[in-house]
Amino acid sequence: MPPKIRDLKKMLTAANFRLDTKRGKGSHVSYVHPGIKPVLIPHHDNDDALPYLIRQVNRAIEKANSIDHEI
Prior knowledge:
The structure is a single chain. This protein is an alpha+beta fold. It has helices at 5-14, 51-70, and strands at residues 18-20, 29-33, 36-41. A hairpin with a 2-residue loop joins β2 and β3. The model has no long low-confidence stretch (mean pLDDT 92).
């Protein structure tokens, strides 16, 4: 069973991404991290995460971890 959207949001928050309250509308929310392209989550919390979105979140977290380790 794929993870839920809420799980991806928790992963991003745990990786020091922050919710960008100025972007997104309706069910779309954006998470930002310095030096990384914003991650747009286009679904409701209880929806299953689609494979492309899981890959996108994992790649963004990997980039964030590499940036955080450089500092």
